[in-house]
Amino acid sequence: MTAPSSPEAPWPVRTVARKIADWIGRLGEVWVEGQVAQLSRRGGAATVFLTLRDPAADLSVPVTCHRDVADRPGLELAEGARVIVRARPDYYVARGSFSLRATEIRAVGLGELLARIERIRQLLAAEGLFDAARKRPLPFAPAVVGVITGRDSAAERDVLVTARRRWPAVRFEMYNCAVQGPQAAQNVIDGLRRLDADPAVEVIVIARGGGSVEDLLPFSDEGLVRAVAACRTPVVTAVGHETDTTLVDHVADVRAATPTDAAHRIVPEIGEQRRLVDTLRARARHLVISRVEQQERWLESVRTRPVLASPDRLLHGRADDVAQLRTRARRTVVHRVEGAERDLEHARARVAALSPAATLERGYAVVQRADGALVRDPAEVALDERLAVRVAGGRLHVRVDREDGQP
After folding, report:
1. Are the beta carbons of 233 and 195 closer than 8 angstroms?
2. Which of 148, 223, 288, 303 holds its CA 20 to 30 A away from the CA of 174?
3. CA nearest neighbour of 245 among 108, 132, 121
4. CA distances from 44 to 41, 68, 111, 112, 254 (A)
5. Is the pTM of this model over 0.90?
6. What are the backbone dihedrals phi and psi of residue 290, each rounded to the nearest 5 degrees, phi first?
7. What's the pLDDT at 57?
8. Strands, DSSP E only, in 108-198?
9. Which of 229, 265, 212, 222 is nearest to 247 (CA)?
10. Tens of pLDDT along 90-119?
11. pLDDT per position as a tens digit, 141-194
């Protein structure tokens, strides 16, 4: 048993390679399913070389087998074929390469292919990739349409010719690639990524003509379905005939029955839109004219009203009202002033009658002491006291003189 490696005692390359070969050799025989990506028969060599690709991932592994295994009667081994291989993993120490050495190869039948597609469909449906809530509406009249299809194919002509006839202003960003064979799915994925990254492209069409179930297998590739689901740009699929259904049809935003149907869905028909615009313009014109006529009738009815037909009539009537109000106000003020004057005269007469001066006029007098106090009783004054006597004509200064006890 080899001692553990360390910086002081590292393993040589041959030891590492031999340990890897031993570990891989212990795996034993395995059954592997995949798609034949490359097939090489070198002259009369006894060994056949092929590459087995995983359709759902960008992974592949080299496979070698004896010519008798590859040429077994009933087995039509060709590139793009789906196969099941019984092989033993092998690590070639001299080159440090890994491969599978096949001892049996079986073709995957149509039933098995359809069952595998159904399993993938259920898996993707469980992840929600086919939900209607994920579907995005197509733009009304996209300026640029991305198209992924075979070069100079009938599907390409159907999409371009029909779309341009319906909407001449539309422009196309083409991505021509293989739409059949082992590289078709990856080619379409590359086209999707390129067109989706172009900000000018508003919708992407994947188009292919009809074919057998085997011919349409690339469009049920799990990797392609996930690439369509990851697109930010709406995707329209037009793969095969109306009765053909692939997995990309489930994940696409819109599934068209044919490439011609796809052209009908991505762009409007210019004649129909013109008729619609003309109809809308006629309706708008009719509504505007009706509205204007209605307002004209209303304005005419308003103008015929007396207040607008003869505005000065209203002013004349108001002038008479103002004159009457002024007359009433003048009479009211005069009446109130005259009443106030009479009241004032009466008050003046009452004040005059009650005033001390009036009393003095009647012959009465007011006697005051030197300090101004009124004298009401003769006993309040002393002999020879000087008093002031106020009469109507003025004041008199007198002196008190008593005679027989009387002042």
Report:
1. yes
2. 223
3. 121
4. 8, 12, 34, 33, 51
5. no
6. -60, -40
7. 67
8. 144-149, 171-176
9. 222
10. 888 888 888 899 998 887 766 667 777 888
11. 999 999 999 998 999 999 999 999 999 999 999 999 988 877 888 899 999 999
